[in-house]
Amino acid sequence: MTKTWQIAPDWPGRESLARCLRVSPIVAQLLHQRNLGDPDVARRFLQPSLNDLAEPSSLPGATAAADRICRAVRDHEKIVIYGDYDVDGLTATAILWHCLKLAGAEADFYVPHRLEEGYGLNTQAITNLIDQGARLIITVDCGISAVEPAKVAAAAGVDLIVTDHHLIDSDLPVCHSIVHPSLPGSCYPYRELSGAGVAFKLAWLLAQRFTVADGSVPKTPAANGSGIRVSGSFREFLVSATGLVGLGTVADVVPLTGENRVLAAFGLKGLANSSQPGLQALLESAGLTSAKLDAYDIGFKLAPRLNAAGRMGHAQLALELLTRASSARSAKIADYLAKQNVQRRKVEKKILDEAIQQITERGLDKSDTRAIVLASRGWHAGVIGIVASRIVDRYHRPTVMIALEDGTGQGSARSIPGFNICEAFHACARWLDRFGGHAMAAGLAISADNIEPFTQAFSEYAQQQLTLAHLQQQLHIDAMASLDMVTEELLLDLNRLAPFGQGNRRPIFTTEGCTVLDEPRCVGKGGQTLQFAVARDGTTRKCVAFRKANLLKKLSTCKKVSLAYRPILNDFNGYRTVDLQIEDMQFSQT
Question: Does the global pTM surpass 0.85?
Answer without folding.
Answer: yes
